Fold this protein.
Amino acid sequence: MKYTIQQQKALAIAFSNTLHRWLGAGTMYQVINANQAMNYDKSLCASHEYCDANAAMLEAIAEVLGISDEDYDASDDALRDLTDDAWQMAKENDFDICDIEDEDDIDPDPNNNPDGTRRVRLMH
């Protein structure tokens, strides 16, 4: 199954909301500062230092896609890519749902856009 940029955005927002709810503002500030210091390295996220961030993402996946953590299939390349891309989107926007909502809605896959356009990151 192929996922859309809108699903990616919705997942990034749900994940950000979950982390904010679980960690609170003070701890999220520490997570954001640590991620900025690591230049948003795709393979790292400071949220793991404060909670089971994978469980937070699974909660967001259940909310957005209706896939329970028991049914999450890590061997599903499209689902894994969606998860990784949503996580990265959330980090790059400092888990700020307003910034995520402002992300351009152009799909990153030119095969999904009839005019061949690509998603453009908005700079904040």
